[in-house]
Design goal:
The protein is an alpha+beta fold and about 300 residues long. Among the domains are: about 25-70, no CATH class; about 75-120, Seminal Fluid Protein  PDC-109 (Domain B) (Ribbon); about 190-295, Immunoglobulin-like. Helices cover about 20% and strands about 20% of the residues. The chain has five helices and 13 strands. It has helices at about 25-30, 30-40, 50-70, 135-145, 175-185, and strands at about 90, 95-100, 115, 185-190, 195, 200-205, 215-225, 235, 250-255, 255-265, 270-275, 280, 290-295. The longest helix has 21 residues, at about 50-70.
Length: about 300
């Protein structure tokens, strides 16, 4: 089959011809009814040659039609034209439509949904990320696994922007926001590591520097060399684990200091419960340090 190339852009035949003198349509010359009949019948067998005006008219008509298609690409809707299924037109609203019926005439596309619908194209394969036209089917498939806007259920590890600490709106509060707010509400203090004392009355005093008594205090023994089932860095809460009832512990706090007193009938280091056996056992002083913590609102 012959493959045709687009013809060059040229003027339409007879576009500057003088009307009536050199170019005239049968409808103009014969009237609407007779002219339509003449056009439908064409030139019949007769010895009288067609007038040059008719030749120029038909060539002008065809040339204008070709130029129109070459310029527009898609024809504009014409209320007087009869369209068949899948005929594509440019509607008065500037949108493309495809005819849904045969014998479709006089139905304005934008207001005739039973006669005109959107043009259709091939649905791209899933995952396509190109300039191909995305059909509604492609979009529905692509978003099928996404969470709805209303009452979404998230999986995995969803993330959100962290609001400013002073924010008091309905924005999502991230874990970082909660930590920041908590940090802004609490003032924390931790002492340095203090040597463990072994007298009969041992007092540990640290100045916290906050000019107010804390609402929370804790004293700990921090393991520095592994023993009694504890590893380096492990901490034992002195308030929760007396270890040996023969040892007396007292804890105090005021607007200036944190204080811990350890009393015993004989000079000994504090005792803790063995992490493996639970048996109260005296620590080795050099293997531990004392640490105090406090907090203020």
């Amino acid at each position: 089959m012959t493959t045709y190339s687009k013809p060059p852009v040229m003027p339409a035949w007879g576009e500057t011809a003088t009307p009536v003198t050199d170019l005239e349509s049968p409808e103009t010359a014969l009237g609407s009814t007779a002219g339509d009949a003449f056009v439908k019948a064409g030139w019949t067998g007769t010895t009288t040659p067609p007038a040059r005006q008719y030749f120029n008219w038909i060539l002008n008509f065809l040339a204008n039609a070709v130029r129109y298609f070459m310029q527009r690409g898609v024809v504009s809707y014409d209320a007087g034209e009869t369209y068949q299924i899948d005929a594509t037109v440019l509607g008065p609203d500037g949108l493309l439509y495809a005819s849904l019926t045969n014998g479709n005439i006089g139905n304005t596309p934008a207001s005739s949904p039973s006669q005109w619908g959107p043009i259709q194209t091939v649905t791209p394969t899933g995952g396509d990320n190109s300039a191909n036209v995305a059909t509604t089917s492609f979009v529905h498939t692509a978003v099928a696994g996404l969470a709805p806007l209303a009452s979404p259920t998230f999986t995995g590890t969803p993330a959100a922007p962290t609001p400013a600490t002073a924010d008091s709106t309905t924005k999502v509060a991230t874990t970082a926001f909660v930590h920041n707010v908590a940090a802004s509400l609490l003032t924390r203090y931790e002492s340095g590591e203090l040597a463990v004392l072994s007298g009969t009355l041992n007092q540990y005093t640290v100045a916290h520097g906050q000019a107010a008594a804390p609402f929370f205090t804790k004293w700990f023994l921090r393991c520095k060399t592994a023993e009694l089932g504890y590893s380096v860095g492990d901490e034992v809460d002195l308030e929760d684990d007396y270890g040996d009832p023969a040892n007396g512990y007292r804890f105090f706090a005021n607007a200036t200091n944190l204080r811990f007193m350890h009393a015993s009938s004989s000079p000994v280091y504090p005792s803790v419960r063995n992490a493996s056996t639970g048996t109260p056992t005296q620590i080795t002083g050099g293997n531990w340090k004392v640490v105090a913590r406090a907090a203020w609102m």
